[in-house]
Amino acid sequence: MKLSILDQSPLIGDATPAEALKQTVELAKQAEKWGYHRFWVSEHHFSNRLAGSSPEVLLGHLSAVTSHIRIGSGGVMLPHYSAYKVAENFRGSRSAGSRQNRSWDWTCPWWYAHFFHCPSSW
Asked: Which residues are in the Luciferase-like domain (predicted)?
């Protein structure tokens, strides 16, 4: 059985957004040590309880501090961005922070799959 973690960088107690993001990084490192298959982050805006607002930036950092766990974004607010910008941000983050043969993932939304082809790896 392959297990994954979706971490939304919650602000627990009086934690600051910076502390929440540090906890996300530590959880990703632990997930890799514990043998988890994937570690997912997501994008949220205007939330008083979640700090994850830029998954492409966070994934670049997670790639630099882990070695083999698959990392990906479980949520990007695609209607708010140009599809080209999202693809370029993730491609740029991937090439800048990751090692060769590193696997990144993102979820293919149902509405995207309805109109476009989603590769089976999504």
From this structure: 1-90
Q: Which amino acid is at 102?
A: R
CA distances from 41 to 8, 115, 116, 117 (A): 6, 25, 24, 23
> Average of pLDDT values for 103-115?
54
Question: What is the pTM assigned to this prediction?
Answer: 0.72
C-beta of residue 86 within 8 angstroms of C-beta of residue 107: no
Whether residue 102 contacts residue 65, with contact meaning beta carbons closer than 8 Å, is answered with no
- 86 within 8 A of 59, measured Cβ to Cβ: no
Give me 96's structure tokens. 């800048």
Give the tokens for residue 50.
Answer: 């979640």
Residue 99 DSSP symbol:
P
